[in-house]
């Protein structure tokens, strides 16, 4: 045991001193946050409105409707198209929308001139705006008032409540899906990331031949377990630092943007102070916060740590055996595939499982050990019967013991085999050696 | 003489290939034991069973009279032929790690490392990474790793490969010092010159079989052919039927070099005869080199 600790300690210390570890550990949450925030920020960045000139020859008074639009700054111009185009070319305006005399049933010839290549989003927006105005015009002409129509459009959201152990809980399918998917992605990513470190470490020791010296001092099993546990410790430390940093960052965001305003306790006061246009946004924010609060974080975190840790141990043992069996990393692909297929399958089915988290596919995948770490994490936010969780966890643990035992046998023989890639049959024989 | 290691009927087969075929060897305490054999003879397999890296199919190994077991790992030091260290690790850390794996406390390990590094002149390299060292320097680090826990039994597999003559000499001295301090040494090689210099006992192994085993001098005398080398100032004229002239060469100094095989009598008879014929410059018994014994035995 003492020697396993020594080996684990070396693995841990060597790895945490690497520059790549330090950089990834510190930058990880920022990169992750960056990846989440940038798209949101880009889409909300509406401070600079694009100015578009409108030359309306339709005689339907569309341009006057357009100038009420808030997404773009529409400016009305008048004159001959050729002349206007010249003026436009000299102006700082970004676009020129030309509406010729059109037939409302078949509105052809509406053209948008732009100074640079127009992006798809802007193009679709302009298309939608003009289309809406044409439709409104048609409605107006047909005698149906806009107010009448707006009365027909009904806005609603079904509120879902799941009755769990007699307790009614608001359930938020979307928030659950996001929580489940995120943790599934993380588990998948971590198992691969740290499992590959084990694989590389074993191949490295084998190819630089130090393994022969080491296994005169310790048993191959001790060397294998030491390596796996050392990397696991590193992974946990890295994960904890990431969590801490993430909480720190989100705490900062909370206070910086006074997210408290939108919590259920404060939302009424906040709404009272807001301009009518912002009320919808505030309500939306409140909904998101309530949904986040609805997730059972202690359970999620406990389950995450268990499935991550034991799942990693299971896969790491298999990866170690592969590393020992092959001569170089390029040879490892052949054996990696069958081992990683379950992991990939569970990942591929994640979306299907979110759509129906209690289907028999979901239940089976969350119980079978090699797929359970990812699949169970997808299911947990939606609620999983405790007995399924218990079976899944016990099976995973049992599989970890069995796989480690088998891997140790492959490892023990493979680590001293040089020069040829073993076949599956040979590996089977290694397992049978006493 | 006490045997430190007793190997009885050791047998090991990989698939269909027998790598150790009922091997019996006794390794005396506090001697340098040469394990000789061509490449692929089974030397490494034998060493790996002693270091318990592999288990034999049958047969036993006793160390100081006790059946070899895991607790004996602490007593054994091993320098494998294929050298290997963690390339990114610093010299000092690496030696400390390997010594601790052998069961040394951190403090004892430090003392021993300082002692050995001083002796081999590498004590200024502690902070260097292995990959920054020359091959010869790496070999020294690896040697220290094999002796740092003061093993009773030291197994050296081709220890001089990759060393320059100066380092080779230094290493030889250290090996002899270890012997004089009571260490039993197994020395595996196919280079016979070093065997003759260092080894007390030898075993010759080929295709998993022990062909020869015993004291080096006894073996050599067993292979003596009663042949003598004589250098004379002039050519021998009159034949003598008690012995046979095996060869006659004129050397660059215009001296006549003879190889003479005795048929009856003893070496004094040859000397008497030679003196009567010419001026005798030198006279030696021709002792077979290990090389010759090696080639002769393997070919047989």
Explain briefly what this protein structure is:
Chain A is an alpha/beta fold and 434 residues long. Helix content of chain A is 68%, strand content 7%.
Please characterize this protein's 3D structure:
The complex is a heterodimer of chains A (434) and B (300). Chain A has 434 residues and is an alpha/beta fold. Chain A is built from 18 helices and 6 strands. Chain A has helices at 2-16, 19-44, 62-66, 81-90, 120-142, 146-152, 173-207, 210-214, 220-256, 267-273, 276-294, 297-325, 329-348, 350-355, 360-365, 372-379, 386-414, 424-432, and strands spanning 51-56, 73-77, 95-99, 111-114, 160-164, 167-171. Chain A has a 4-stranded mixed beta sheet with strand order 2-1-3-4. Chain A has a two-stranded antiparallel ribbon with strand order 5-6. The radius of gyration of chain A is 31 Å and the shape is elongated. The mean pLDDT of chain A is 81. Chain B has helices at residues 43-50, 91-101, 106-120, 135-147, 165-180, 192-198, 216-222, 267-277, 290-299, and strands at 3-14, 17-28, 32-36, 58-63, 66-67, 76-79, 153-157, 184-189, 201-206, 209-215, 227-232, 243-250, 256-262, 280-285. Chain B has 9 helices and 14 strands. The model of chain B has no long low-confidence stretch (mean pLDDT 88). Chain B is elongated. Helix content of chain B is 33%, strand content 31%. Chain B has 300 residues and is of the alpha/beta class. The interface between A and B is medium-sized, with 18 and 27 residues.
Characteristic terms for this protein:
A: 434 residues; two-stranded antiparallel sheet; 18 helices; 7% strand; B: 300 residues; alpha/beta; six-stranded mixed β-sheet; four-stranded antiparallel β-sheet; 33% helix; 31% strand
């Amino acid at each position: 045991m003492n020697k396993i600790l020594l080996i684990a300690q070396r693995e841990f210390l060597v790895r945490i001193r690497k520059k790549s570890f330090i950089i990834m550990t510190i930058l990880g949450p920022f990169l992750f946050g960056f990846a989440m925030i940038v798209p949101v920020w880009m889409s909300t960045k509406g401070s600079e409105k694009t100015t578009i000139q409108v030359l309306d020859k339709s005689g339907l008074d569309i341009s006057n409707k357009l100038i009420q639009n808030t997404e773009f700054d529409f400016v009305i111009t008048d004159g001959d198209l050729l002349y206007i185009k010249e003026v436009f070319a000299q102006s700082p305006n970004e676009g020129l929308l030309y509406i010729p005399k059109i037939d409302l049933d078949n509105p052809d010839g509406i053209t948008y001139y732009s100074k640079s290549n127009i992006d798809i989003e802007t193009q679709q927006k302009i298309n939608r705006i003009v289309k809406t105005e044409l439709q409104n015009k048609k409605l107006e002409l047909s005698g149906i008032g806009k107010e009448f129509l707006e009365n027909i459009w009904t806005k609603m959201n079904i509120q879902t409540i799941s009755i769990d152990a007699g307790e009614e809980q608001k359930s938020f399918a979307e928030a659950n899906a996001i929580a489940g998917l995120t943790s599934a992605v993380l588990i998948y990513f971590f198992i691969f990331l740290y499992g590959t470190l084990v694989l590389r470490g074993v191949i490295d020791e084998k190819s630089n031949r130090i393994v022969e010296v080491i296994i005169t001092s310790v048993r191959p099993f001790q060397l294998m377990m030491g390596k796996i546990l050392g990397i696991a410790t590193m992974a946990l430390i890295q994960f904890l630092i990431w969590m801490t940093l993430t909480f720190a960052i989100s705490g900062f965001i909370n206070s910086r943007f006074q997210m408290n305003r939108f919590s259920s306790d404060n939302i009424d006061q906040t709404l009272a102070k807001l301009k009518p246009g912002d009320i919808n946004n505030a309500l939306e924010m409140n909904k998101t916060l309530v949904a986040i609060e609805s997730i059972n974080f202690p359970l999620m975190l406990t389950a995450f740590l268990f499935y991550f840790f034991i799942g990693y141990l299971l896969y790491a043992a298999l990866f170690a055996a592969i590393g020992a069996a092959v001569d170089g990393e390029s040879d490892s692909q052949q054996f990696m595939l069958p081992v990683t297929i379950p992991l990939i399958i569970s990942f591929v089915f994640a979306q299907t499982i979110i759509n129906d988290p209690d289907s028999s596919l979901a239940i089976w995948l969350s119980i079978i050990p090699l797929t359970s770490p990812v699949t169970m994490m997808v299911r947990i936010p939606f609620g999983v019967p405790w007995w399924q969780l218990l079976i899944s966890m016990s099976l995973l643990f049992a599989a970890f013991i069995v796989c480690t035992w088998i891997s140790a046998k492959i490892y023990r023989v493979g680590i001293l085999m040089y020069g040829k890639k073993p076949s599956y049959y040979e590996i089977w024989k290694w397992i049978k050696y006493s | 003489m006490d045997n430190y290691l007793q190997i009885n009927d050791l047998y090991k087969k990989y698939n269909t290939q027998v790598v150790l075929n009922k091997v019996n060897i006794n390794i005396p305490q506090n001697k340098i034991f040469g394990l000789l054999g061509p490449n692929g003879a089974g030397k490494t397999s034998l060493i790996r069973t002693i270091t318990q890296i592999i288990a034999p199919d049958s047969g036993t190994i006793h160390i100081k009279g006790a059946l070899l077991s895991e607790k004996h790992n602490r007593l054994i030091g091993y320098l494998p032929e294929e050298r290997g260290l963690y390339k990114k690790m610093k010299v000092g850390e690496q030696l400390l790690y390997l010594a601790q794996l052998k069961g040394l406390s951190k403090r004892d390990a430090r003392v021993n490392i300082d002692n050995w590094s001083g002796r081999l002149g590498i004590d200024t390299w502690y902070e260097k990474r292995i990959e920054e060292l020359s091959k010869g320097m790496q070999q020294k680090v690896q040697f220290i790793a094999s002796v740092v826990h003061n093993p009773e039994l030291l197994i050296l597999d081709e220890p001089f490969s990759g060393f320059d003559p100066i380092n080779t000499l230094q290493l030889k001295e250290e090996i002899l010092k270890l012997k004089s301090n009571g260490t039993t040494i197994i020395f595996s090689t196919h280079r016979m010159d070093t065997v003759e210099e260092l080894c007390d006992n030898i075993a010759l192994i080929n295709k998993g079989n022990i062909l020869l085993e015993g004291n080096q001098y006894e073996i050599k005398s067993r292979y003596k052919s009663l042949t003598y080398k004589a250098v004379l100032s002039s050519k021998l004229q009159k034949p003598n039927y008690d012995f046979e002239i095996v060869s006659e060469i004129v050397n660059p100094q215009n001296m006549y070099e003879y190889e003479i095989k005795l048929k009856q009598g003893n070496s004094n008879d040859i000397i008497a005869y030679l003196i009567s014929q010419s001026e005798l410059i030198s006279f030696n018994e021709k002792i077979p080199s290990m090389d010759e014994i090696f080639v002769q035995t393997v070919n047989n």
